[in-house]
């Protein structure tokens, strides 16, 4: 019998000092487990406030650019 393919949606919380670092960490983890980053947002602990990042693309490096 051939294995079936399943899609699993997961939400993972990561801690980061800024948006750039959050994007870097999210993509690094996604690559490690074979996943895709479809959205990143900031949500303070014990808060309903949520700020969706406009750019959730993978940064070229962990270093922020000066511009």
Question: What share of the residues does DSSP label as strand, in percent?
Answer: 5-15%
Number of helices: 1
Helix share, percent: 10-25%
Structural class label: mainly alpha
Query: What is the count of structural domains?
Result: 1
Number of strands: 2
Envelope shape:
globular
List keywords for this structure.
67 residues; mainly alpha
Give a concise summary.
The protein has about 70 residues and is mainly alpha-helical.
Task: Please tell me about this protein's structure.
With 67 residues, this protein is mainly alpha-helical. It contains one helix and two strands; from the N terminus they run H-E-E. The chain has one helix at 19-33; strands spanning 41-42, 51-52. The protein has a two-stranded antiparallel sheet with strand order 1-2. Strand 1 (41-42) and strand 2 (51-52) form a beta hairpin.
Task: Give the topology.
Blueprint lengths: L18 H15 L7 E2 L8 E2 L15
Antiparallel strand pairs: 1-2
């Amino acid at each position: 019998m051939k294995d079936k393919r399943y899609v699993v949606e997961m939400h993972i919380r990561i801690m980061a000092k800024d948006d750039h670092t959050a994007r870097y960490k999210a993509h690094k983890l996604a690559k490690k487990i074979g996943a895709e980053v479809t959205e990143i947002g900031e949500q303070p602990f014990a808060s309903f406030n949520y700020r969706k990042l406009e750019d959730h693309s993978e940064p070229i490096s962990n270093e922020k650019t000066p511009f």
